[in-house]
Amino acid sequence: MDLxxxxxxxxxxxxAVSKGVDEVSLVYSQPYVPGDRIIMExxxxxxxxxxxxxxxxxxxxxxITGNVEYIIPFGEKRINLSPKVFYGTRHLxxxxxxxxxxxxxxxxxxxx
Length: 112
Known about the structure:
Layout: E1 2-8, E2 14-21, E3 23-28, E4 37-42, E5 47-52, E6 60-64, E7 68-71, E8 91-97, H1 100-104
Antiparallel strand pairs: 1-2, 1-4, 3-8, 4-7, 5-6, 5-8
């Protein structure tokens, strides 16, 4: 499956792009400004993907059915995030298609 990361500004102009097959990473070397967004495009059908929108965030195994759009939070929307997330001038974005053992592996989903 083809994967593509794009960083877009508020007017949907492309600021950075990176493409890959089954795996993609992008190093974005500018500070984010209000209105910026991250788009992850896929070429295939629904899939499980390991995705990391910033190196200060952990990776998450997600099931996607199409393209993913993430608007960079500012102001009050950042309250629940670490101060390191989406801050500074160097950002690492990463995604890869999950392997069968990732999907079938044991997970404790009890949140009591």
